[in-house]
Amino acid sequence: MGRKWNNIKEKKASKDANTSRIYAKFGREIYVAAKQGEPDPESNQALRVVLERAKTYNVPKTIIDRAIEKAKGGSEENYDELRYEGFGPNGSMVIVDALTNNVNRTASEVRAAFGKNGGNMGVSGSVTYMFDETAVIGLEGKTADEALEILMEADIDVRDILEEDEAVIIYAEPDQFHAVQEAFKNAGITEFTVAELTMLAQNDVTLPEDAQAQFERMVDVLEDLEDVRQVYHNVDLGE
Questions:
Q1: What is the 8-class DSSP label of residue 37?
Q2: Is it true that domain 80-128+204-233 has CATH number 3.30.70.980?
Q3: Which of 36, 66, 157, 214 has the fewest CB neighbours in a 10 Å radius?
Q4: Is 81 left (phi over 0), alpha (psi -120 to 50) or beta?
Q5: Kindly report the CA angle at 105 between 58 and 67, in degrees rounded to 5?
Q6: CATH 1.10.10.200 domain span(s) along the chain
Q7: CA proximity to 39, closest of 8, 73, 77
Q8: What secondary structure, in 3-state letters, does 75-144 show?
Q9: In contact, 2 and 194? CB cutoff 8 Å
Q10: Is the pTM of this model over 0.85?
Q11: 84, containing H or E segment
């Protein structure tokens, strides 16, 4: 493992900083999660996960509150949660998660993003079997050994703990997402550099320079699509 999660997050946030696109996407995701259950993160696990991730991207409280209030107000705006799978240059693998109120539009845009950048759409299940859903929690101010000690005291056994740059990254089972955070919060750590559920490739691949440049363009196009929530892949971008 080891995708240098902090650097990836910072790259995404920097790319979207001028357009506030990332905030709009979080607003939609928070609204959908709040509408699917109680609009309270204490009783709505899906909402809690989204809010924890939003915090690491410094999403303004006004965006969060507006989305939750919209859900409370009984808005009739509905979104479908979709997952697309496909292949990039040199057989690289990509998963695209989307929230959309127009399935035909989203499918067309995602297909075009693949096709115009050396990739192609796959059928359902053609890629996901090579990925594992994983909880990723990042924090600063502790060593990997200190983080492990905190988790052991809370009787939590995770997949892996790595030091990446100046942060410690914990890889855990999806259902441990909140338990891992609570263990650190109880130890006085309340800020996380990364807090998300992701699809982690079982094996990363390295592309030739020209193919990697093409792949990065494809990922950028996919991430810029209004309806796309997350893009996962198995390419080592050397972040």
A1: S
A2: yes
A3: 157
A4: beta
A5: 30
A6: 5-72
A7: 73
A8: CCCCCEEEEEEEECHHHCEEEEEEEECCHHHHHHHHHHHHHCCCCEECCCCCCHHHEEEEEEEEEECCCH
A9: no
A10: yes
A11: strand 80-87
Is domain 130-201 in CATH 3.40.50.2300, yes or no? no
Give the separation between CA 44 and CA 49, rounded to whole angstroms. 9
Give the C-alpha separation, 42 to 81, whole Å.
23
- Report the distance separating Cα 3 and Cα 15, nearest Å: 18
Q: Which fold would CATH assign to domain 5-72? A: Arc Repressor Mutant, subunit A (1.10.10)
Tokens 């696109």, residue? Answer: 21
Residue 147 near residue 139, CB atoms below 8 Å: yes
CA 159 to chain centre: 18
Closest CA to 8 of 169, 175, 119: 169
- 19, 82, 78, 29: which is closest to 52 by C-alpha? 29
Start-to-end CA distance of the chain, whole Å, equals: 13
The region, left, alpha or beta by phi > 0 then psi within -120 to 50, assigned to residue 238 is: left
Q: Please, which residues bridge with residue 82 across strands? A: 98
